Amino acid sequence: MNQFSYYRASTVKAAIDAASRSGNTRFIAGGTNLLDLMKSGVLTAETLVDINKLPLREIRQEQNRLHIGALVLNSSLAEDDIVKKQYPLLSEALLAGASPQLRNMATVGGNLLQRTRCTYFYDTTMPCNKRTPGSGCGAMDGINRMHAIFGVSDQCIAVHPSDMCVALAALDANILVAGPKGQRTIAMKDFHRLPGNTPQLDNTLGKTELITAVEIPAANFTNWHYLKVRDRASYAFALVSVAVALQVENNRIKDARIALGGVASKPWRLLQTEQLLKGQTPTADNFRKAAEKSIEGAVTRTYNAFKPAMVVNSIQTALLKSVAI
Ligand SMILES: Cc1cc2nc3c(=O)[nH]c(=O)nc-3n(C[C@H](O)[C@H](O)[C@H](O)COP(=O)(O)OP(=O)(O)OC[C@H]3O[C@@H](n4cnc5c(N)ncnc54)[C@H](O)[C@@H]3O)c2cc1C
Asked: 20 lies in a domain?
């Protein structure tokens, strides 16, 4: 058994100071991912800093943006009146994730930082460059059905498993962070990392930095849909997911955002596909043509070769559902 000390912080500063004191400190929020990882020996901690008492549970509308505290529960966020009315894409994505019990524990900050569900990462008897840099990758020539097809490296093909993050990527969210050097904001697109030669690093957050909030800029989208394709109808991670937000005026697409889940180590924004859609009429044909562009550069392995076709079909379906054709 690995012993660790436990400290309950009551201010953001106290949490950051506690994290800075020891080399192997981890913040704990809902614990739904961290405790599993510690129990299975994937992660260790000298100190757990419990952040649940911090005043980071507020959802408030500010001028031109929605502010969401890092400790807001996934369930509270999904059911929030402002979110349901103005950002239904986010609500749909959250409700597609996990189970009601888990969503009642899981926090926004924890969801952003949840680790991959790659089985080789969880199995400590197998090589995994993300868990133990330099040990190899069991997934590369193993059972890689759930794995990435975009942004992969020869070190790692794990995917980021979050649903919420896919919607946040489409909504151009910002992550507010506090650390020993003060506060900073990280754009969602820069938050999660591609594996490259450092697959052990999932994101650009510093080791002692704390996520304090997520902010979503106001937008004028008229149509939304979150589609999650998975092995079971609920309580399963995505094979492919698609977050779509459109602004349609006079039967023309004025603005489009599309992000994919289940295909990369970060939510995968499709900027080129978005450009192709702008100015088009929202028809099945136009959606198909744009969707077909989205798989350029995909790299498949033995068991995930079905994913590019699934991506195209999923994007077209999500777009059609968003305009209810
Ligand atoms: C069986 C099961 C099924 C699931 N299915 C899905 C699914 O379909 N879709 C989906 O999206 N998710 C799914 N999840 C994942 C779930 O959403 C995450 O476990 C949850 O969001 C993590 O939040 P938490 O608050 O419990 O994080 P914790 O477990 O407390 O923490 C996770 C990580 O975040 C760090 N952390 C937490 N808060 C902060 C902060 N504010 N600042 C800095 N670091 C922080 C911790 O140190 C830790 O490293 C599933 C989980 C389980 C167990």
From this structure: yes
Q: Is residue 160 part of a domain?
A: no
User: 312 CB less than 6 Å from ligand 1?
Assistant: no
Distance 54 CA to ligand 1 centre (A): 17
Give the total number of structural domains in the chain: 2
Flag whether pLDDT at 234 surpasses 90.
no
- With respect to residue 197, please indicate whether it lies within any of the assigned structural domains: no
**Is 102 close to ligand 1, i.e. is its CB under 6 Å away?**
yes
| pLDDT given at position 8 | 98
Beta carbons within 8 Å of 210's beta carbon, 6+ residues apart:
12, 15, 16, 19, 27, 51, 70, 109, 177, 178, 179
User: Does any domain span residue 182?
Assistant: no
The two three-digit tokens of residue 288, written as one number: 């198909």
Ligand 1 pocket, 162 CB below 6 A? Answer: yes
Last residue of a domain, one of 13, 36, 52: 52
User: From ligand 1's centre to the CA of 222, what distance in Å?
Assistant: 30
Q: What is the pLDDT of residue 226?
A: 98
- How many angstroms is it from 29 CA to the middle of ligand 1? 8
Q: Residue 48: which domain range?
A: 5-52
**What's the gap between Cα 156 and its chain centre?**
17
- Predicted confidence (pLDDT) at residue 271 exceeds the cutoff of 80: yes
Q: Predicted confidence band at 325 (pLDDT cuts at 50, 70, 90)?
A: low
